[in-house]
Structure formats: C-alpha cells, structure tokens
C-alpha cells in the first residue's frame, strides 16, 4: 500500500541556522521558507536525489509543533510521510487494522497541495506517520 | 555533499509486531531480521520504492538503542542516514564546520557492509545523522 517516502520532517528551533547548516555543512540543495498558515508551520524543503527533508518551524500561536519544540528544545525528527495512491482507501484499511487517524479522520490539504492524513504515533512505534495521496 | 537518503531508522519495542504491521497494515515489502552484533542491534529493512526504513531492536547487553527505548517505550524515529561519496572528506569538512563526530571519529563498517559515521544530534537539530559511504 505505501509507496515512496515523500519526506522526513525535522522540527528545528532556528530555521535560518538549520537551512544554512544543510546548505553549507551538509552541502544540500535547500529551498526557501514557505509559510503554511493552515498547518501552523513555516517549512523549508531540502531536495535530496531520492526524497526530501522538510524543516519545520512554528508559525502563529497554535502551531502543532510548538509543544514538540518545548519538549525537544534542540529540535528533532518529527514525522515521516509515505505516499499512497488513494488516501481514503488507505485510511479505511488502516482503521480496519486498528490504527487511529488523528483529527476528524478526514484528509486535509498538505504543504504540497495534496490530501494528507496523520496516524497516531502510539499505533506506529512512537513514530508520527503522515500519508499523502499522490 | 550529501546524496540520497539511504534510510530512516525507527527503534521499536517489538520487532515482530512492527514487521507484521508494516507488512499488513501498511502493505510494505518487509525483510527478515538480521542480527548485527558489532552494532548491538537486530535490524529489519523495509524496502520502499525510493529508500528504506530500518527497524531497530536491541541485541545484547550493551545495545546503543536500549537507552533510547527506555526513554521512548513505544519506540521512535532514531536516526536518518545520508549517503556520501567519500566519508573521510565528508568528516573532515563537517569537523571544519564545527560538527562533532561520535566515537573516535573513525568510520565503522555498518549494516550494509559500508563505512559509516554518526554525527552528534545536538549539532543537527536534535537529529542523529548517520553518514554512509556508497
């Protein structure tokens, strides 16, 4: 069912410093910051040859990653995103297997303009899993 | 400098359950457990079309992931692994940029039989980074 790893998201306490470090120390292809008000984050995508790293920084008062950065002040790996062909079929299958979908269970439009869902980390080895329909 | 994302490693409290879940609930191509005594882990690789997920479970008394699982009993994302062409050149460049290499700074042979190094997570937004020469 799951296809490509679309991205790995890393929450960072300083988006400029993290972008500079990936560009300079790690020599990667780093994009420009993009505000995603609907998701409460500013993101920077790092293009690797086979997938992307998504740097996440809180945007606004109710950012879903503020709590994560309070618990992890240096930052940390926040989630992985797997691609699926049909997000509704994927959701229904996962729910039938006992996995919990976060929020109201309906897909939202994600940072790439595609429908996304998040699965409960307690059901996936402490790993927050995003599914994105491609 | 960094190339492909070689894998994302997830430490899990139950390797069989996690393997079954990736196979059944997520419909992925899940390999067989491989003991890596030199690294103190048993690993299961999950082949995605563009990269791999590496499930990690402690092996032996002094496993480097036992402490991680004590702190994160449900498991969690443990590290990301980026490919490099020349691990010594990569190490020297990163050290010149102020990044710390774990251990004695010399590459070890990793789970794929290739030289690997780990970078200090405090220097990389709380994210443990493995470099693998390919």
From TrEMBL, chains A, B:
Protein name: Methylmalonyl-CoA epimerase
EC assignment: 5.1.99.1
Keywords, ordered alphabetically: Isomerase, Metal-binding
Family to which the UniProt record says this protein belongs: Belongs to the methylmalonyl-CoA epimerase family.
VOC domain sequence ranges: 4-134
Species this protein is from: Parasulfitobacter algicola
CDD domains: MMCE (cd07249)
GO molecular function, one term: methylmalonyl-CoA epimerase activity
Gene name of this polypeptide: mce
